Amino acid sequence: MIRLLRSLSTLSPRSAEIQWRLVESVPAPTYNTGCTFCQPTFPPDKQINFDQNLNKSSRIPAKHVMVLTTKDNKMEHFESKIENWKGTLSNEIGKLKHKVPIAEGTSVSSIVLQNHDTVLQEEFGINHYSNPQHQLVFLYPDMKAIKFDIMYTDQFITKYIPQTQKTTVFNPFKKKRVEEEEEEEEEMRKPAQEINVDDANFQETMIDKDLIVTCGHAKRDIRCGLLGPLITNEFDKVLRKEGIRDDSYVGEITHIGGHAFAGNVLYYPKQCKSNHDFIWYGRVFPKDVQGLVEETVKNKKIIQRLFRGDLSKYQ
Question: What protein family is recorded (predicted)?
Answer without folding.
Answer: Belongs to the AIM32 family.
